[in-house]
From TrEMBL:
Keywords: Hydrolase, Membrane, Transmembrane, Transmembrane helix. This is N-acetylmuramoyl-L-alanine amidase. It comes from the Bacteria. Residues 121-231 form the MurNAc-LAA domain. The chain crosses the membrane at residues 12-32. Signal peptide: none annotated. It comes from Thermoanaerobacterium thermosaccharolyticum M0795. CDD domains: MurNAc-LAA.
Length: 237
């Protein structure tokens, strides 16, 4: 009978077979481990409803530097944040998702800017949300050296302060600054009846911040910091 395989060929075939088996087994085990980790890792944002308010819009450009308008940075950062929150299992409500102002949503006999703010407050108060985030860009004319994100909150309830502390701490870690959140009496903060904060992502009057705020990569980094703060807040509430 003709010999089909030599002993050397058989050993080579056996080696290839064993290698394929080990690779397949490793792939299956890795898939199982990743699946178990995904199911065992707590997802603090799953099922939460977050309202994002990109400040200004439409006729209201917010603060500016040359052709760079706050309203556009606010919207871009908010859309990045929205996408990331959804990927974490959260539901997101936007006060605006395009370049518009919101004064037409309020019929009060008041000036345009106040009606715009009232519309945002009404969306916060009339929706079932867990927290709201109002996204803005800061400016200070006489101190161009001031930089970095700042978180503002109303002291109307303790949960506002707690949320502000977590988000500010996470943004500090993301950007390398050392700052505490601040109490503010902004119209939106003082009239909103839900837990939330106003986040100033940086200073358009600081050259470094100005350049960074035009980078999607940096805005994504800030979004990760905000999400980290949210996760810690919900974990410990």
């Amino acid at each position: 009978m003709k010999k089909i395989f030599s002993s050397g060929s058989f050993k080579k075939f056996n080696y290839i077979y064993c290698t394929i088996f080990v690779v397949l087994l490793s792939t299956i085990l890795l898939f199982i481990c990743n699946t178990l980790i995904a199911f065992s890792t707590p997802n603090e944002l799953k099922g939460k409803t977050i309202l994002i308010d990109p400040g200004h819009g439409g006729i209201d450009g917010g603060t500016s530097s040359g052709n760079l308008l706050e309203k556009n940075i606010n919207l871009e950062a908010s859309m990045i944040l929205k996408s990331k929150l959804i990927s974490h299992g959260a539901k997101v409500i936007m006060t605006r998702d395009k370049d518009i102002s919101l004064e037409n949503l309020c019929n009060d006999n008041d000036y345009r800017h106040r009606r715009d703010l009232k519309s945002r407050v009404n969306m916060i108060n009339n929706n079932k949300i867990d927290v709201y985030l109002s996204i803005h860009i800061n400016a200070v004319a006489n101190a161009p050296y001031v930089n970095g994100p700042m978180v503002f909150y109303s002291n109307a309830n303790e949960s506002n302060k707690t949320l502000a502390l977590y988000i500010q701490k996470s943004l500090n870690a993301a950007t390398g600054i050392n700052r505490n959140p601040n109490i503010a009496d902004y119209f939106l903060l003082t009239n909103a009846k839900k837990t939330g904060v106003l986040v100033e992502l940086g200073f358009i009057t600081n050259n470094s911040d100005k350049n960074l705020l035009q980078s999607r990569e940096y805005l994504s980094k800030l979004s990760d910091g905000i999400i980290d703060g949210l996760e810690k807040y919900f974990k410990n509430e």
